[in-house]
Write a structure and sequence with these properties.
two-stranded parallel sheet, mainly alpha, 443 residues
């Protein structure tokens, strides 16, 4: 089966491997999330093989050369397009298909888009579209919508060179979504946000803008936000749009995080090097807090806390409205068994009995048991049954967490059941390091 037939026979995004047995380095690159340069083979110059391959007589020799490395050539593109079509549509191996894509022309957009749906070929197809079309923005957006992860980053990188109003709006509205590569795509979208906000903005587009900036308002991404040209003007433009919009929980999340950013550290540096002034800082702080003072937020949060589809957004804004989200979060965890790590961030000695009761209602997922075993460290002799379960877990990390918590508790607090369980764990522990840590507790 040719690779083209394989791809054309699948609808939607393609994440499966190809039917060829060659190109395993490319497959390994995908599995390890390598950037969008899929071939790591040695370069092979095929210039001298192209004339004969175009006439048909030397096709097999060219094909064999394309299997042996990463091809390069210095021949003019004239007359090579038909050879490219043949390689793309008939080849059974990814190397010849990839090389064929580099020979296609402006009449082959549909073929480039079809084969580019597979992540092995996305970057090559996107690059070729930019080379042969005076305005590749529309085809590139079609290609970007059909792929995810690093392949989408490759397409978006080509799209940003187009920078048309349609491209900018798509990047902000939807281009950064539906992808494991969102951390790489959101900063790209953010750099086009000011231009998009300068025009008409509908509720969905405003929601996307708030989501982009909310993500960058995580402390880990402050530097990305600070590097955007004229960040103060961008934030001011976004606040102006919010002043005239119907409130949503997404807007509240943005305002809450922005208030933390504006009241946090690092402002001496921003004044000196990032284009901020004290006047900008004070003005935006005042506008954010004016918006947060609206009485419309509280009923939104209270309703969201009761809605499984919106509880996470409601939780992020609850504190700014003076609402204790713990009762709603506890009910959510009891109902779904999810979000144990989030619930445990609200753990206090007063709330511990309720949390332990909830933990005992249903079997805990490994991640939940791991989080609970760690959270019990400051609370000796509370929830020992969960430490017993953690010691018996098949997950090495969970057993290690239980061991650290028992170390914090100290042997004086242990029940006989814990000592028995610890001896049993030592007898079966495959990790020498962890086994030694457990053994030292019994000394």
């Amino acid at each position: 089966m040719s690779i083209y037939t394989h791809i054309a026979g699948h609808d939607g995004p393609l994440t499966d491997d190809l039917p060829d047995v060659a190109g395993l380095e490319s497959a390994l690159a995908l599995l390890t999330d390598a950037p969008a340069v899929w071939s790591t083979s040695a370069p092979v110059d095929v210039t001298d093989l192209l004339p004969a391959a175009v006439t048909g007589g030397g096709y097999d020799d060219l094909y064999a050369a394309l299997l042996s490395g990463d091809p390069t050539h210095t021949a003019p593109d004239d007359g090579l397009r038909a050879l490219g079509v043949r390689l793309v549509t008939e080849a059974d191996d990814r190397g010849p298909v990839r090389f064929g894509l580099t020979l296609l022309g402006p009449d082959d957009v549909d073929l480039l888009l079809e084969v580019g749906r597979h992540p092995v070929f996305t970057a090559t197809a996107a690059t070729r579209l930019t080379e042969v079309l005076p305005d590749p923005s529309v085809p590139l957006m079609r290609l970007a919508r059909s792929v995810e992860g690093w392949p989408r980053v490759a397409v978006v990188s080509c799209l940003t060179e187009c920078a048309s109003p349609e491209v900018r709006e798509w990047l902000v509205r939807d281009g950064y979504r539906h992808s494991a590569a969102e951390p790489y795509l959101i900063p790209i979208a953010a750099r086009h946000l000011a231009e998009v906000l300068a025009g008409p903005v509908d509720p969905a587009l405003l929601g996307s803008a708030c989501e982009i900036i909310s993500t960058l308002l995580d402390e880990a991404h402050f530097e990305v936000l600070d590097d955007i040209p004229d960040t103060p003007s961008l934030l001011a433009a976004l606040l102006r749009k919010l002043e005239h919009a119907d409130h949503t929980l997404g807007h509240l999340t943005l305002l809450t995080r922005l208030d933390v950013y504006l009241s946090g550290p690092g402002w001496d540096t921003r004044y000196r090097t990032r284009g901020w002034t004290l006047a900008w800082h004070e003005t935006l702080t005042r506008r954010v807090r004016d918006l947060l003072s609206s009485p419309a937020w509280r009923p939104l949060v209270e309703t969201g806390l009761r809605d499984p589809a919106h509880i996470h957004a409601a939780l992020s804004g609850a504190s700014s409205q003076g609402i204790d989200p713990f009762p709603a979060l506890l009910a959510h965890v009891r109902r779904t068994g999810e979000d144990w790590p989030m619930l445990l961030t609200w753990l206090t000695p007063h709330r511990l009995p309720e949390i332990l009761a909830a933990a005992g209602e249903h079997p805990l997922a490994p991640a939940a048991l791991d989080a609970l075993a760690a959270a019990l460290a400051p609370h000796p002799n509370h929830g020992p049954e969960f430490l017993l379960a953690a010691l018996a877990s098949p997950e090495p990390h969970t057993r290690a967490v239980a061991t650290r918590t028992l170390t914090t508790w100290g042997p004086a607090t242990w029940s006989p059941d814990i000592q028995t369980a610890l001896r049993a764990a030592i007898a079966t522990e495959p990790s020498a390091t962890l086994r030694q840590s457990m053994t030292q507790l019994l000394v």
